[in-house]
Write a structure and sequence with these properties.
The protein is mostly helical. It is 73% helix and 3% strand.
Length: 416
Amino acid sequence: MAVTGSTLVLAAAPARPARVAARPTAPRARTAGSSRPGTRGFTTGNLIARLPMGMFGISSVMMIAGQRGSYALAGGVVAAGLAATAVVAPLTARLVDRHGQARVAVPATLIAVLGSLSLVACVRTEAPAWTLFASYAATATTPNIGGMSRARWTHLLKGDPAAHHTAMSFEQAADELAFMLGPVVAALLCTTVFPEAGTLAGAALLLTGMLVFTAHRATEPPAAAPVRGKSPLRALGRLLPLFFVLGTMFGSLEITSVAHLGGHGLGALSGPVIALQAAGSCLAGLLYGTLRPRGLPACLGVLALAMTLPWAAAATGSVPALAAALLAAGMATAPVMVTAMSRIHAVIPSGRLNEGMTLAVTAIFAGISLGSATAGSAIDHLGTTAPYALPTAAALLALLLGSAKLVPVFSTRLVR
């Protein structure tokens, strides 16, 4: 993938020279890759608006706990916000699909930004606790920028599965980059500037990025009329359990790693070690985009093996070994997420694609919540090594779900 002028060039996966040569109308473009004018602009906005996704949670926790002296209150506010997001985000996505990205995403973002500013004001003025919950709940209108960006690529790259695979791999890498850098930037701002700096910066980046993203109307998929038939929730019924289990794996692995590294006295240095998981997934996502896509069961099999590594490394008591294991585990997650997200395109009508992807993300977040809570309880009773069995078990369950013959949606065929 490369940027030239105002165009983002997606290098097509190799091993398809025959089909490329068969297109005499644009041999140079097809040989070099798939180029689409205007994609650089919306990709820039996408990356800017994506970074706050990894900032808001930790910024809010640090701000509320620092000013109110209660991590319980901070955690409750964030948890309530996630619950509100689970309800509101799919509705926002449905409006985006039906009325267009720019018409819905901009006002929805403004509401979310106002919610963040209200949260800062309520914390600073020592307003009643319920105002914190209400303010953070308002941020649930934040549009799913990843889903909207993927919908644009799907619209632009119809009939070009190789370029679409590359684009989806890039999007997964962008997700991991946001969740790798976001917490680091947020913690740095909250601790070195002032406690509210992380939330304010996140709100500014979200609004700026969304305005840049939606300004590029030429690449926006057309608004779709109401689609009859299966709702995205029903169509994804066989995929949502997989996304939920993957979220459980992510949540339990993160909490267990935080506790394990904290037990080794790393404290603040545990953050960069844990970020290696996201770094590995980011790198693997970019690499996977240049390779021929694999079937979902094969990707899940590699993931199940990789998730045993942190458990084995933790048993040795070696922090470097655990760091390497987290990096390897992260590299195994990107192919799974890219392939699983691609399956959504096979079962969701194009007019409701953003809604379908938002439902998948919501399932992941629900799994993360359960995984975090389960791992926390296990750590209190079993220490910080045994709970690594939880992400391992979740990965194995995901493999069973993805390989079950009773679930035909997990076909290994690439969607054409």
